[in-house]
Structures are given as structure tokens and as C-alpha cells.
Q: What sequence folds into this?
């Protein structure tokens, strides 16, 4: 699932992250990864004040044929996201981050990609989420990582 990295395709203020994100999406184009997004991503894009950027973000979804997850498990996802917030794993104002995680867990995604080191892509958060998931009856192992780990893990340049 790629909810939190699309915007880095246009991050001129973070050229290294932008390049790595572009490299990752080249792997997506080659069919190396199946990429999913949720309605949370669409809603976040809809809040983008710059219409050009909004259209660019939406075009990435179409261009790379990112698969939209169904909404039939939204109640379960909301309960799990609220659990993360109640446990303090994700700060209450960051409900979208909790929802990204919950979607990835409920739909048993292998990886949740993010450049958000503070609230998502870090070892402490990943371990706390794993513990919370077990407490809630979810045992599928979710990795929360950056495109850098995925892109370079897939590289033949070793």
C-alpha cells in the first residue's frame, strides 16, 4: 500500500526522497509491486489546496493503475484506527496515519510505505503496532518502511 509517498514525486524541497520515490514508481511500472491505496489517500489528495498538485497526484494513481481498496470493511478499519489512537501509538490529531495503518493491517498488506519517520516508519512505532494488532486479533506481519528500503532491496547493484 502506497498512501504516504505519492506526494514525494513532486517534492522539489526534498530531492533525495523525490528521486528514490521516482525510482520506486519505476519498479511499479515494471510490475514488480502491486500497489494499493485507500479512500484515505483520495481524501487527503482532495484536501490539497493547489489544484495543479492535486491533479498531478490524481494522475499518478491513474498512470500507475494503483488499486483502490474496497470500503466494505470500513467499520473494522475505523475501530482498529481508534484503538491505535487510544493506545497513544499514533497521536490523536493524526487520524489519517492511524487509518493508513488500519487499512494495511485489515487487508493484510505486506508493506506500508511512508516517509513519515516520526509517526509511522520507525522501529518503535512498528513494534507498538504489532503488539496492538496481536491484542486486537490481527497476526499478519506488517512492515512499515520507506521506498528507499524497498527500492534498494530490489536493486541488482550489490
A:
Amino acid at each position: 500500500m502506497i498512501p504516504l509517498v505519492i506526494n514525494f514525486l513532486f517534492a522539489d524541497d526534498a530531492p533525495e526522497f523525490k528521486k528514490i520515490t521516482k525510482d520506486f514508481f519505476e519498479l511499479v511500472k515494471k510490475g514488480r509491486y502491486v500497489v494499493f491505496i485507500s479512500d484515505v489517500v483520495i481524501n487527503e489528495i482532495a484536501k490539497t489546496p493547489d489544484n495543479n498538485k492535486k491533479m498531478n497526484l490524481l494522475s499518478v494513481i491513474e498512470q500507475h493503475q494503483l488499486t483502490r481498496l474496497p470500503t466494505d470493511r470500513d467499520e473494522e478499519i475505523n475501530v482498529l484506527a481508534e484503538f491505535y489512537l487510544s493506545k497513544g501509538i499514533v497521536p490523536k490529531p493524526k487520524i489519517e496515519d492511524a487509518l493508513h495503518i488500519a487499512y494495511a493491517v485489515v487487508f493484510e498488506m505486506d508493506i506500508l510505505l511512508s516517509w513519515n519517520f516520526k509517526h509511522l516508519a520507525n522501529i518503535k512505532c512498528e513494534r507498538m503496532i504489532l503488539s496492538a494488532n496481536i491484542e486486537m486479533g490481527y497476526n499478519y506481519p506488517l512492515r512499515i518502511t520507506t521506498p528507499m528500503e524497498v527500492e534498494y532491496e530490489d536493486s541488482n547493484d550489490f
